[in-house]
Amino acid sequence: MKKSRFVEFHGGLLSEFPRFSSSYMKSIILTGSSGLIGSEAARHWHSRGFKVIGIDNDMRAEFFGPEASTAPTRARLEQELSNYLHQSIDIRDRVAIESLFRDHGSEIAAVIHTAAQPSHDWAARAPHIDFSVNALGTLNLLEATRQFAPEAVFIFTSTNKVYGDRPNTLPLVETDSRWEIAAGHPFEAGIDETMSVDQTTHSLFGASKLSADLLVQEYGRYFNMKTVCFRGGCLTGPSHAGTELHGFLAYLMKCVALEKPYRVFGYGGKQVRDNIHSRDLIAAFWEFFQAPRSGAVYNIGGSRHSNCSMLEAIALSEQIADRKLDWSYIEQNRTGDHIWWISDVSAFKRDYPNWRLEYGIREILTEIHQAVVSAPTH
């Protein structure tokens, strides 16, 4: 195979990566390519000489309305990335998925699966759609990978909701601004992969994602494929099309900056989330891609490095935007919602010691604020 070399300045270091000639270029299949994580992955792999075959039919607009459409991101990817090929395929369409994989076959180096129905509330309103997108869509991709690109690395964006509301049984202490786990508890540094997924309320969204998560593990273990489940907390960044039902920090900052009303659901507004920037997550994907395992599972998130409560996020957003938020409180929490979630990322760090978190909450919110106020529709 003929290839040339190119030098890229990345992260302050000069690095060489192989650039394949167009006729032999290695490809990645990327679902949800116009979303937050998908678009970040598209740019990352493209910059390293891969052709990116993006699958996205903008169901996010169907789920959450026109303001959540990923169409503008798709347009930017097609304009900016010379080796980006977009496919408006529904991942539930087995025939279309198999046809795409058959066409590209052995050139596929990785399948990065970020597409999903991501909302608790939406899943309860349309269970068949939720399950078919999250579970059946994942099965279609796994089987197509096994049949046509068995050596490809399969990276799945799972969720901490596979644990249901089990975290709510932890011993928590209420402080002025947040709930916090009792000092000295084994999960004080964060929740690791040993937490049980059984005998707990997941929400229908959590159940469909857990089904997909188990399939990804099983294809790795049963068929010896190179698969991984990244069980993320809040995934965020300036490209996030946040809405009330999905996209905590992005939607919050949008409401602050644009002076829109905001609602807090339950737990006194003291519920805690860790938040991981999309670039930090994609950096983890890249590390795994370079040294894959079979049937791997990792909790991934901002950990103790990047976390906040609702009240803390509101205060920091108001400070960054220099505006007050018009917010109201609703006593009823969302079904299956976590009171406290901080990821223990030590398992991934142990297996991939070159990876580290770069972004904290302030840096994340500052980037989101800049994106909101500079948006064309602002």
* CATH architecture descriptor of the domain at 3-165 and 190-237 and 277-304 and 342-359: 3-Layer(aba) Sandwich
| CATH homologous superfamily descriptor of the domain at 3-165 and 190-237 and 277-304 and 342-359 | NAD(P)-binding Rossmann-like Domain
Helix-and-strand structural type: alpha/beta
**Mean pLDDT across all amino acids:** 90
Distance separating the two termini: 48 Å
Order of neighbouring strands in the sheet with most strands: 5-4-3-6-7-10-14
Instruction: Please report the first level of CATH classification, the CATH class of the domain at 3-165 and 190-237 and 277-304 and 342-359.
Output: Alpha Beta
Q: Unreliable runs, pLDDT <50, ≥5 residues?
A: 1-23
Give the percentage of residues in beta strands.
15-25%
Tertiary shape: globular
CATH T-level topology of the domain at 3-165 and 190-237 and 277-304 and 342-359: Rossmann fold
> What is the CA-based Rg, rounded?
20 Å
Number of strands: 17
Q: Sheet with the most strands?
A: 7 strands, parallel
Helix tally? 12
